[in-house]
Structure of AraC family transcriptional regulator ligand-binding domain-containing protein:
Amino acid sequence: MPVEGEWARADILRVLRDICSNEDLDWPYIARLYDFDLASMDDPQGVVPIAAWHGVFEHVAEALGSDAVMFDLFNNVEIGCLSVFDYLFACAPTLRHACQAWVKFMPIRTNACRVVFEETETSGYLEWPILEGRGEWRQSMFARVGWAAHQLEQALDMHAPPIMIDLATAAPESTSALQKKYQGRLNFCVPRNRISFPRALLSRPLPRHDPHLYEIILKSAMTEMELFGQKESPLSRIANEVASNLSQGASALPLISARLGMSQRAVQRLLEKEGTSFRKLSEEVRRAAAERYLRSTELPMKEIAFLLGFSELSTFSRAVKTWFGVSPRKVRQASAGSPRHPAGTQHTEKTGQHGRR
């Protein structure tokens, strides 16, 4: 396990390898290409850098020749493949408890990203905040949605429960069974990655719940928290907060510091220790977000400028030209005619350094 940097559990790559066992995939080559230890996939404590984790999903989807394949591969994964984390949801007392457990125990899966659960007067939703600047995450998100939909299907004992799926990326060119199953309830090119459902479902008792068994599951999860559950890496926490507040001004250090519960000087010192600055980190996050919006959505330029915190479209255009050498429209046109490849990591986190804790 890593002592520094952003990581995710490697067992999901083992699951991906196993469900693609009939495919001609060169996993030693993939491990070399994305710079992770091949043995970590079979190590119960194995982890990989988050950028490598994203990259592998993109690589495998391209190798399989379908940009929608991850939906179905992970919508059919058996419960329990991802350690105790699966059972936290499937065996919870209610759907509300299940969602809350995912939020609490996400640190046993990764220190780079989190899941948010919220309720409104009519709905509940699970949201996966976007990781800007850690490489192309599109296929890993398709896999996560397929897996989460399967968890909801199993927990509620419904073939296609009344959920709405929002994805902050373009629709795949290929078509999956999951897309057909949730036809009309799957939205692409929207601002967030989330699954929503009627609030009334949150109080529904789940059929697999057994109080004694769930107590054992929670104890096991707490053991894993002691092993894996270091808090979100400080640099990740700042970068994620910047990304989630872009529309309010990515360079607003007072706003971000307040949301983190830290002084401005404390944030600056932490970033200096990591060899960067708030200005540089904000610019990297903003640049990555701009590239994603232009390449993966059809949002109007004015809306993208607003989402990135630019008050004027002309200012946004100048920034894009500085970052990419061409206008926003040309960035979008160039990506429309070219195949997707794993994007390079812009985040300053030392993701390339990994080992065992």
